[in-house]
Every structure is written in C-alpha cells, then in structure tokens.
Amino acid sequence: MKNILILDTGKEWGGGTNSLLELLRRIDRKEYRFTVLFYYNYEKPSKSDIRTEIEKLGIDFLLLDRNNQSLTAKILKELGRAFLFFDRKLQRLWIFGIDYFFRIRKDVESITKLLKDLGIALLYMNNQPSTNLEGILAAKNTGVKSVLHSRIEADLSFFEINAVNKWLTKMICVSEGIKDSFVRQGINSSKCIVIHNGIDTSITPAVSPEEIKQELGVGKDELLIGTVGSLVRRKRFNDLIKAISTLCVTRYALREGKIKCIIVGEGPERESLQKEINKNRLNDRIILTGFKSDAISYINAMDIFVLPSGREGFPRVILEAMLMGKPVVASRIAGPAELIIDRETGFLFKTGNIEELADCILRFLLSPQLRKDMGEAGRKRVIENFSIKRYVSEVSNILAEVVE
C-alpha cells in the first residue's frame, strides 16, 4: 500500500473541495493510504468544516502549523507596492520575494519533514502552482513524486514555471483551456494532462421545484433565472444583475412576462451585489439566497442557469445545471467553453458584455421549446461524457502511473 499525502492550501470551500471529496469517496483505498494536510480548517457553510468531512471518510486530517504573517513582511510588501507602483510585474516579483523569505521556505521545511516522517510515496496537491510552490519544493527535497491538480487559470512567475518544469512529476488540468494557458506561459506540455471534472449522474434533488419556488415567492407565471457560486469578484454576478435590469426595463418583463432571479451563495461581495440590486431597483426581482447546502434543488427549480464568470476551471455548477436539464448561458472562457456546445446545449457570450448576456437570456425567455431542447441536449452530454466514474478512473490511472 502506497502512502499519499494530499496538500490543500485553500482558504474556503469551493468546487475544488467538492471534487477532492468525490475522489476520496470513490478511489480504491486498498491501493493507497491517504493523509490530508490543509493550511486552514475552513468551514462548510452548512454547519460543518473540512476536517469533519475528511474524517467522516476515515482519513487522517493534519493542519500545517504556520505562523501569521509578520509585521515586517507586511511593511515590506506595502513599501514595494508604493515604490514600484509604475510596474506591476516588479511589484509581483517583490511580493513573491517577501513571501518566499518569510513564509514559503518555512512551509517547505515543515512539509519536507512530514513527507519523510510519514513515508510518503506521492504528494498530490489540490490547487494551482502559485499556491503550491512549497509542496513542489518539498517533494523535490525528498525525491517524492508529485502531482498537482490545477483547477483554475493563474499567472505564474518565472520561478514558479521553472519549479514546475524541473521538479513536478505531472500536472492534471481540469480543461484544455487551463492547460493552454499554462503552456503559453512556458510550462512544458508534456507535464500536463487534461482530466475534466465529473459528476454523480444519479444525484436527485431533495426538494421539488414547486416547493423551492414557493419558498422564494416565485409566482406560477414567473420564469426563474439563477446562478450558484461563491460571491467573489471573478464570478462577475454584478453583470447578471445588470443584464436582469436591462431585461426588466427595456426588453422582456414589461412586454412579455415576469421574471425573477436568484443568486445562491455567500461571500465577500454580498454587500456590493446588494448595492447593485438597490441601485437598479430590483429588490422585487433579484434574491440573494445565501449559501444553500442543497444547491442542486435550487438549480432544478431554475428555468435558465447563468454563469457570467471572468475566470473558471471546469465549473461543477454547470455540470449540475446541465444534469438537471437546464439551458445554460455562460462566459466564453476556459472551462465553460468546453462544457457547453454553443447553440446546442446553451449559449456562450463574451465576458463582461452585458448586452450580449441579456440577449442570450432573452432568447431562452421567449422560447419554451428552445429551453427544453437545449436543456435535454445538455443533460445527455453530461451523462455521456462527464460521469464521476470516468473522472475517478482517469485520476486513479495518473496516480498509479506516477507512483509506479
């Protein structure tokens, strides 16, 4: 039995967390003994946390002993931002240097010790190179094989690119777009393999659409537009609010029928989004529901699903929406552009183009048949191409290949 250490440096629950848990629930535990190492015991908003969920699976959970950022490091970073304001690249290089001197090298020492003490054969990192550099360096120090599961695009420094090319054994990318973005920056293509996220195609909503709509105050004559995700800037949910405003004021609601919109999730942008809703006088149209542990039931209640993000990997929420037979509108970016066949299972639009986003939504609003046809085509595509069984099998094959 091979010992595998999973390193997760994330600060909050997200799609990558769900994908990791799905993998650990299903992977052959007779072949591997897993231990997980997290930087933070972050909360699952439904009154749980990552330690609890990992330990439910019978897997040892470790929390890395880390010091808070020193006052000296904070001051040096601010000085760099102030004096290097004229050059963004120099700013990033300066901050990276401070991080390396005050934090990264200490974390490398701690992870290196763990790899040795636990007799680890493989280090599996659940994020992208910028946030897992210390893991790559620790694996290099010990001669341990390493796999990094890159779930989102990231701008890498020269040092990070060099570290991946020299010392990382293999990088799993969740989409061709993610792989291409790293290769363009200088990562060796031979290091990268694409494995799309998967979903359990047998999952069913716990609550009916009628009950959800009743809870939200959505009338029988109203169509429900919605989205799900952490309320962070890169999701660009403010664009959805502006598009709904455009539809309500100039195009649809005043002439054709009634619409409502829900944004399911929690995060630091909630106040900003509420201000946008207030500014556009949409309090009776748009509902910020907060986090919902049963998000799939809310997706199933939607007539149209929208994801206007500026940056993604291979979003599970689109898989969930397509599985529920919902027509999808999403940004034409890495991930969604591989999931959605434009004009067959949904519509893709240019990120930030409010008019195009509103037009895509409008086409679905005006045609029940189009919603039905594209929703059914999307469901078929997910079942045939993105099952969780395929995902676990492909990741397992990479792990077996690396530790061989």
Summary keywords:
404 residues, alpha/beta, Rossmann fold, six-stranded parallel beta sheet, 16 helices, 17% strand, globular
Question: Can you describe this structure?
Answer:
- The structure is a single chain.
- With 404 residues, this protein is α/β, with parallel strands linked by helices.
- The chain folds into two domains: 2-198 and 388-403, Rossmann fold (3-Layer(aba) Sandwich); 209-385, Glycogen Phosphorylase B (Rossmann fold).
- It has helices at residues 15-26, 50-56, 71-83, 88-117, 133-142, 158-167, 176-185, 209-216, 237-251, 270-279, 295-301, 316-323, 336-339, 354-365, 368-385, 388-403; strands at 2-8, 32-38, 43-44, 48-49, 60-63, 122-125, 145-150, 170-173, 192-194, 222-228, 258-264, 286-290, 304-307, 328-331, 346-349.
- The strands form three sheets. A seven-stranded parallel beta sheet has the order 5-2-1-6-7-8-9, sandwiched between helices. A six-stranded parallel beta sheet has the order 12-11-10-13-14-15, with helices on both faces. The chain has a two-stranded antiparallel ribbon with strand order 3-4.
- Strand 14 (328-331), helix 13 (336-339) and strand 15 form a beta-alpha-beta unit.
- Helix 8 packs across helix 11.
- The chain is globular, with a radius of gyration of 22 Å.
- The relative contact order is 0.11.
